Amino acid sequence: MSAVDEIKARLDIVDVISSYVQLQRAGRNYKALCPFHAEKTPSFIVFPETQTWHCFGACGTGGDLFSFVMKYENLDFGEALKTLAQRAGVTLETPRQGDLRQQKHLEKLYEIHAAAADYFNKLLLESPYGQPGRDYVARRGLNEETIRRFQLGYARDEWRALSDHLLARGYERQDLLECGLIIPREDGGFYDRFRGRLIIPIRDIRGRVIGFGGRVIGQGEPKYMNSPQTPLFDKSHVLFGIDMAKGAIRARNQVVIVEGYMDVLQAHQAGIGNVVASLGTALTEHQLNLLKNMTKTYILALDPDAAGDQGTLRGLAVARHTLDKAVPIVTSRGWIRYESRLDADIRIMTLPEGQDPDDLIRESPDRWDELIAAAVPVVDYYFDVNTADLDMRTAKGKSEAVRRLVPILFEISDQVQQTHYIQKLARLVRMEEPDIRRQLQAYGQTQRQRPNERVDIEPETEPFAQRTFTLEEQCLSTLLRRPQWLDKANKLLTDLALRPLQEDDFGRPENRALFAAWQRIPEGTDWAGWVAQLPPQLQNWVDLILDNSPEIQDSAVELAERDFERSILDLRRRNIDRMIQNIQLLQSESLEQGDAKAAEYHAMVLALKRDRLGLDRALLENTAWGKRQKRERVA
What we know:
The chain folds into four domains: 3-88, Zinc finger, CHC2-typedomain (DNA Primase, Chain A, Alpha-Beta Complex); 101-231, DNA primase DNAg catalytic core, N-terminal domain; 242-445, Dna Topoisomerase Vi A Subunit, Chain: A, domain 2 (3-Layer(aba) Sandwich), CATH 3.40.1360.10; 471-634, DNAb Helicase, Chain A (Orthogonal Bundle), CATH 1.10.860. The strands form five sheets. A five-stranded antiparallel beta sheet has the order 1-2-3-4-5, with helices on both faces. By secondary structure, it is α+β, with helices and mostly antiparallel strands. Mean pLDDT is 82; it is low at 326-340 and 449-468. The protein has 27 helices and 18 strands.
């Protein structure tokens, strides 16, 4: 765990901000007059659940405890880090000095998760207290072999059953809190997170327990509860069942991605071993990277509602981005160029109305196999989704259909398949096939490298082949190397009526601080001189980012720039998702209290979702080509 992460684990944002500002409880959140501008009505909100703050007034800014202290005390990142480290009792070390200690600490957290899983499992299998869990798994048709294989467990409906067990074995309260197994109380006490639930251990690809899912037995909300984000667990980075499924995925050269735990359990019990779950989230880059080296065939099992929603569209945009591959093409002149191709076969399996995979597999495994075989290629799915809102009887509707679908057709590398979909699009818009091909050719010319450029075939073909860091660090590494690319990426945001990239688009404090410092570089400043002026912690962070991201090869500049542009859009989309989450918390509380502001929050959420929809569509098409088409329409 880094010093920043350790500080955030030890300090609560409510405690920190309340030492500067007088906070008032407002349901599950806290509010105050904003300390950064004059106001009479409180618009400054602190969200304990997400450990963030936001001003909904004139400032319109927000962040975490680091950004608050930096802004309030006018400190740079290094000074704020020292201030908060002293408050948290954390000894500061450089990232490299702390690696060994961090690894040892993570090993302890793995050990605690394994001990908790063993405790839950024994309760379910052997203890009289586990009878409600045994009754539930029997109703769901899960046999003992499945229970033992997945190490299913049961959490007693007691406030401190697990924590008392683990504390008695010598584990420390702070570590249990960091694992997300206990929840602190306002009076200084704590209680178990999971109570009265069937417990499903979540493992990483190596089979190590990193978190838990809990299914309530009987009445209660939420029906399913996951571990919170911890140093080991981030639900957007894991696929449930991946450790069990990886062999079958490779053997069948196919993975089926479902939504829930029970879907995976029933599939594996029925001998269908290539099934994993995305834990209710849209597909993420991290999840797809787990699968890239196992198979190129992805089947998404969607219920009829999910098959048409924007979350699915967003997940497929991420899939196309992640599975994009640059392949060498030999031209007629003997040069080598690189073209982007979708290096995967993504298919959509729509489930019967009212059934999820769990029900379907229990009732008829044969029917499951039939639906898998009948899964629709993702291109057909795109045809349906991208034209659902268009009037294909009008010239405008037809033009928009071509604009949306030609980028998809271009990424089909198989010529026979591409011809099939060209013909399909021609029939849909009632155009001649050669006209569609001319549109495709025009689009392709904007993507290819100039044919008179020699390209060495040896260097890496992917600009970000080593994805050691997150999307944020990838964007920063590109900015540090190619600062001139930001203007073009920002133009994409302004074309969508969105503000340019800002520091609050970054979630990690180091990244926020580094981007803010980068924006303030005076023209003509020497690179080495600028880095030397940064706080030591940020100097180390720059070194780590650049050391863990490869140089952009000349042979992949165009692909790298396109990847960077998409990443900027994706960063903004993630920021919008965080905002929606916080505002929906306020909206929910306002509805419970009969507050008139609920309608205002609802309008804010709708506006943010409209912005996100625009970003989703931009991520589904090549930006340069899309802007060219827009200019032509305006002309």
